Amino acid sequence: MNATPESTAPTEPSPLCEPCQGIQRNWRGAPGHPELQQGKHRKELRGEVQVTITGYFCDRCGAHWHYTNDKTNQRAGWSLAPK
Fold first, then answer.
1. Per-domain residue ranges of the chain
2. Greater pLDDT, 34 or 10
């Protein structure tokens, strides 16, 4: 059986609302959108740097997001939370 692109794609809540689709992922400082509700945050050690990860929940589509605040990594920022 051959894998199709759909079967190998990362799982995301379906469908993401238009504001969630517009979030720039993995870029520090990128904005979220007004319908994201802030949840809990935690601190993690990444190498020698302590970062803060804050959870968010979208009121419109139900997507769960993480925002990683790491001033040493320009590629930190928004990502969909793992299920």
1. 26-83
2. 34
